[in-house]
């Protein structure tokens, strides 16, 4: 399996992970940019409900595109 995995990687695959490195850099070195103010108590449940709804919408689209039967 090691040979197959290493053969499937290309030299430009690191580009897919650059955003993770940028976020990590910002989190570690640029803490003054981050706002430490807490969100309102009404905002957090709305965002969570919207994210769950988008997840299930994406799941529904995936099932209609590729049904499993």
From TrEMBL:
Superkingdom assignment: Bacteria
Transmembrane segments: 14-31, 43-62
EC class: transferase
E.C. no: 2.7.8.-
GO molecular function per UniProt: transferase activity
Protein keywords: Membrane, Transferase, Transmembrane, Transmembrane helix
Record-given protein name: Glycerol phosphate lipoteichoic acid synthase
